[in-house]
C-alpha cells in the first residue's frame, strides 16, 4: 500500500505522458542572453515550472542540445516565483531549468517589496527593484513599530498556547529533496520520447543542481547522484544543522565542483557556508563568493542582478566548457575589477 501511495504521489507531481505546454509567459522580455526565454507550465509535470529558450527546437538545431538545471526554492517553498528573474535570465543563455513549484503568474516585485522592507541588508543604502521602484530601509520609527507588533504577536501566541490542551503539530514541509531527481527523471524520459517537446533537446551529460537557502539543503540531499555534475549553492549552508534530512555528513557525498554565492556577514547562511567550505574534502573543487547583499541577494533586481551574472558564468564554465568564464572564480584581479565589493575564496583547483 505504501509503495502504491508513493507511486501515486510521484505521478501527481511529475506526469507520465508527453510534455504538454499549457501555460506560457515572457518575463523581462525574455532576458538578456542570446536566446530569448520563456516560463512554461506543463500538464504532464504540474508540480514544476520550466524556464527555457523560446523556439526550443530551433535553438537546439542551431546550437546543439542544452544543459539542464534542477532548482529548489528558498524556505523549501512549493513556489519558485521569488527567483523568477534569475531563472529566466539563466535560461536565456541556453539552459533548460526545471524548478520545484507549479507555474505561477504572481507579481514578483510585489512579493519582494515586503521581504526587503523586513530584512533590509545594513550594507546597502537603497535597492532599485527590477520595475524601477526604490526600496529604502525601515526608519527607526517603522522598526520600533514592527518590533512592538511582533512582541504583541508573541504574547498572544503564548496565551493561546496555554489555553490549548493539545500541542499542534508543526506543518509539514511542502517539498522534499527527491523532487529534484524526479523532475530530472521526467526530463530524461521526455528527451528520449519521440513527439515530446524536449525530444533530443537536452544534454543530460551536463546537469546542475541549484538551490537557495533551504533549497540548498535539498541540493545536498541529492548531490550523491552521479548525473549531477555541479552544484550551485545560493545563500545557503548546512553547517551543524539538520535540514530536510541533510547534515554535514552529506558533504562527504560530493563528487562535483561546488559554487557558493553568499551575501556576506549579513546573510543568515554566512556562518554555515563558511563551515561547509572548510569541511568539503580536498579532492572537491569549491569556490565561494561573498557580496554585501544579505540573504536576499540581488534576485529582485533587473534580470536577477549580479547574482544571475555570476551563476551564468559558473554554468557556462562547468557545463559548457567555456574556460574564459572561469576568470571570475579563479582570478582575484578580475573579480576585483568586475565586482569590487565582492570577496572570493577557492580551493582544490
Write structural notes for this entry.
- With 349 residues, the protein is of the alpha/beta class.
- 36% of the residues lie in helices and 19% in strands.
- It is built from eleven helices and twelve strands.
- The protein has a ten-stranded mixed beta sheet with strand order 1-2-3-5-4-8-9-10-11-12, with helices on both faces. The protein has a two-stranded antiparallel ribbon with strand order 6-7.
- Helix 8 (270-279) links the parallel strand 10 and strand 11 (286-290).
- The longest helix has 24 residues, at 140-163.
- The radius of gyration is 21 Å and the shape is globular.
- Residues 1-11 have low confidence and may be disordered.
Architecture blueprint of SSEs:
Blueprint: H1 2-13, E1 21-25, E2 37-42, E3 48-53, H2 56-63, E4 66-72, H3 84-91, E5 96-100, H4 108-118, E6 127-128, E7 134-135, H5 140-163, H6 178-192, E8 202-212, H7 214-222, E9 228-234, E10 258-262, H8 270-279, E11 286-290, H9 305-320, H10 327-330, H11 332-338, E12 343-347
Parallel strand pairs: 4-5, 4-8, 8-9, 9-10, 10-11
Antiparallel strand pairs: 1-2, 2-3, 3-5, 6-7, 11-12
Helix pairs in contact: 3-9
